[in-house]
Design a protein that fits this description.
The protein is mainly β. The protein has 1 helix and 5 strands, in the order E-E-H-E-E-E. The strands form 2 sheets. A 3-stranded antiparallel beta sheet has the order 2-1-5, with no helix packed on it. The protein has a two-stranded antiparallel sheet with strand order 3-4.
Length: 61
């Protein structure tokens, strides 16, 4: 299982993305989406530069 984490471009805090995808889709991601940061409430772009895909175990999901 994977989890997509976004780093806010405004406050730099990290949070789980509402957009979830597999590794192949992540590598093909072109961007164009944005989400609202739950910490500073600013909209931040979803791009490979500020997103990371992490693997999580089923026990921690």
């Amino acid at each position: 299982m994977t989890r997509l984490i976004i780093s806010c471009q405004h406050c730099a805090k990290q949070f789980p993305s509402p957009l979830q995808m597999d590794l192949d889709t992540f590598h093909a991601l072109l961007g164009g989406n944005s989400v609202r940061c739950p910490y500073c409430e600013e909209r931040t772009k979803c791009s490979k530069e500020n997103m990371m895909l992490t693997c999580i175990s089923k026990e921690s999901a």
